[in-house]
Every structure is written in C-alpha cells, then in structure tokens.
Amino acid sequence: MDPKHLDLDPKAIRELCVRYERELVYAKDWMFWFLMVWTILLLGMEWLHFFTARGVPAAMTAGYVVLLGTYIAHKEVLRWTGIAAHIHRGEIFVYIWWGALLVMFLVEYSWGTFRIPEGMTTLAYEVLGYFLVTEVSKAVNTWRKHKKLGNRE
Predict the structure, then answer these.
(1) Residue 83 contacts by C-beta under 8 Å, 6 or more apart in sequence?
(2) What's the count of helices (H) and strands (E) in the chain, helices before strands?
(3) pTM here?
(4) Average predicted confidence (pLDDT) for the chain
(5) Which UniProt keywords apply (predicted)?
(6) pLDDT by residue (tens digit) across 44-75?
C-alpha cells in the first residue's frame, strides 16, 4: 500500500479507537457472565463429587482455569491501557470457591463420611493465586500512574 494514500484523519482514527475500546469492554462483560455460568456448573460438579464421589472431568476444570486466566488477562490489559471498563468484582469468584470449600470442610468435619475432592482444593488455590496476581498488578499500575503524575508536578 502506498503511504501517500493512507488517510490518517485524526477524527477517523479517534472513531476507530473508540469503537475498538467499546468492543473490548463489551467482550469483557460477556466473558464475565460466561465465566459465572461455568463457575456455577463446575461448582455443582464439585458438590456432586463431594457427596457421590462422581469425578469431575479434567477437561472441565482445565477449561475453567484457562477461561478464568483469559478473563483476568483481558481485564488487566484494559486496566494497563487505560480503557475504562464496567466494573465486575472478580473477587466474587474467590468468595464462591472459598465459601464452598469452607462449607465442605465443615461438612467433612461434622459428619466424617465425606472427603473434599482434591480438585476442589486445587481450584480454590488457583483462583486465589489469580486474585493475588491481579492485586499485585493493580498495585503496580496505581504506583506507576501516581509516579507519572508526581513527575508532572
């Protein structure tokens, strides 16, 4: 393509950027709700495993971990690029998994007949690990912005 024929109209570039930003935010919102449905289904399977020893398919758990990681990476990219997205409190996934794990611990302790599936504890640890990574990312991003603003003064 001949560089002379490129239309670099600032208004057109701005419109393209706004459209791209809107699509990124829209994708993140849909991903949140898809992840929430996946969470509920996988959590239900973990409870079935807890009560009936019916195993959870490994692909279901692996897919969840990959999907959660993708959602978090997308959210962090938006944060670091300065794109304002609708706020979905990702911490809810930590509360869901750790709340369920706590209830399983109490049931196991009280009745002594059920055993917490290893996959359940692994998932809870992974979700918490993701949460900690995002908290570090938020802190570094906030520090970077604060430092940049401090250099302007």
Answers:
(1) 21, 24, 25
(2) 4, 0
(3) 0.77
(4) 84
(5) Membrane, Transmembrane, Transmembrane helix
(6) 999 999 999 898 999 999 999 999 998 888 88
- DSSP-assigned states of every residue in 28-95: HHHHHHHHHHHHHHHHHHHHHHHHH-PPPPHHHHHHHHHHHHHHHHHHHHHHHHT-------THHHHH
> With contact defined as beta carbons under 8 Å apart, do 48 and 104 qualify?
no
Find, among 90, 81, 95, the residue nearest to 134 by Cα: 90
Are 82 and 25 spatial neighbours (Cβ–Cβ below 8 Å)? no
Q: How far apart are CA 109 and CA 15, in angstroms?
A: 59
Whose tokens are 């399983």? That residue is 104
Measured distance CA(130)–CA(135) in Å, rounded? 9
Q: How far is CA 117 from CA 62, 93, 120, 121, 127, in A?
A: 15, 18, 5, 7, 16
**Which pLDDT band, with edges at 50, 70 and 90, does 78 fall under?**
confident
Contact present, 97 and 63 (Cβ < 8 Å): no
